[in-house]
Amino acid sequence: MAASTEAPEPWYLALLGFAEHFRTSSPPKIRLCVHCLQAVFQFKPPPRVEARTHLQLGSVLYRHTKNSELAQTHLEKANLVDSAKPVLRKAIQISQQTPYWHCRLLFQLAQLHALEKDLVSACDLLGVGAEYARVMGSEYTRALFLLSKGMLLLMERKLSEVHPLLTLCGTIVENWQGNPIQKESLRVFFLVLQVTHYLDAGQVKSVKPCLKQLQQCIQTISTLHDDEILPTNPAALFHWLPKEHMCVLVYLVTVMHSMQAGYLEKAQKYTDKALMQLEKLKMLDSSPILSTFQVILLEHIIMCRLVTGHKATALQEISQVCQLCQQSPRLFTNHVAQLHTLLGLYCISVNCMDNAEAQFTAALQMTTHQELWTFIVTNLASVYIREGNRHQELYSLLERINPDHNFPVSSHCLRAAAFYIRGLLSFFQGRYNEAKRFLRETLKMSNAEDLNRLTACSLVLLGHIFFVLGNHRESNNMVVPAMQLASKIPDMSVQLWSSALLKDLNKACGNTMDAHEAAQMHQNFSQQLLQDHIAACSLPEHNLISWTDGLPPGQFQPQNGPTTSLASLL
């Protein structure tokens, strides 16, 4: 093998040696390391060396500096050079006797394939790495490879492969005895995948034991010192995430759970904690994963604000996400569909239905993620129902999210929402018995998994149906708990709807005092929503509702005043 391999030039070995010396100094001398690597290009090296150097520069800048754009440029150049992957493959072949480098190269090549969306090749390489780590006697690194593979399989929705893999990982993690920080970080990785798996399936109640374990695990990690004894096995010299990053990640999955369950005040509390932690970390660490965490947190809190009646704040946070995404092409590509979805939800909240339709349509064209696609279609169907004159488009959408037949995703939450949309349509069409059937199915599913918002919406709509049918007692039995639940969430729209219904219900039953109290509540909710509506529509960021293609506008022209109908609020 040595005879057939071209010997490196002495200047290259010297520069590489200096670069590694500066990188591993204490403290690291990253600027000098970068200078040495950049000097390689002055010698006009062959393509393999050029590709490898771009990859090394990109990795160093990515991990140790705030210059994420330059890091990305080098990584992209490494990708563009045809020999980049062959270089890594060749290095993998000749590094089998050096466990650390062999594992590291396998991780790097798998990452390149994952970035190119070639998840099959990435999973194959991670499987190879897991077997190599087993042979080398490092169960810790074997678990890292397998958990990384599990993460990609979850992204691909290959659930039949995820279950046995997570079971195997759970056994490895629990049985492995070693460095306490490494063990706990493996547990966090494993539990994050489990929690994400449950939340993707919309199983908000079932996930609670795993989420509790995860929160306990991060408390344990925070008490451990970083200066633990290093592993003696060179194949085990890896770490998944710094513990500060893990802490933010646990906050993030807690927010995701709280949002699905309808505990919006809890979601807000954990979002505030996570964003404060992120601000501190970003002062010292330029890792792109921190921006990704920040964007995902903001996406969730924006949905929270829209429900709690803080549209103006939500709109400003949508603008903040736009600005974050403009700083990174990869971040923009990965989140542009979510941005248009959030704008669609905002448009619904301010009754701009044409804009909502345009935003959801744009989002559908930009995503291949099945759960997000189903969420968008469900909300677009609600727009068509409200407009009342889009029957052909509406029925076409409803066929694609039929909860009784070939529902496109396994999410319990989204399937329950699809039943609610069917119930809403039947209500508007005056088919009340059919509406009740769909809404009772929603209630059964939402109660099973503590989906509080769907429960509140279903109860108030059932209360409205019973009121129309003249069954005031049954209507009251639905509306009162709907109001209590909506207040607990809190969901301003459901509170507005419930208070209006309670006013009419008490008036019809001759309960003058209760009717007056409900009317006062309705007036208060109406005023709060109206003021927020005017504030949101007056913001220059309101112009974002017209953006449906390309990059978001960088600057916004001030609005003269709200241009949208307030009829839906009053």
TrEMBL record:
One of its GO terms (cellular component) is nucleoplasm. Residues 551-570 are annotated as: Disordered. GO terms for biological process: cell division; chromosome segregation; mitotic sister chromatid cohesion. InterPro entries: MAU2 (IPR019440), TPR-like_helical_dom_sf (IPR011990). Keywords: Cell cycle, Cell division, Chromosome partition, Mitosis, Nucleus. The keyword GTP-binding does not apply. Belongs to the SCC4/mau-2 family. It holds the Pfam family Cohesin_load. This is MAU2 chromatid cohesion factor homolog. Residues 556-570 have a biased composition (Polar residues). It comes from Lates calcarifer. It is found in: Nucleus, Nucleoplasm. Its main location: nucleus.
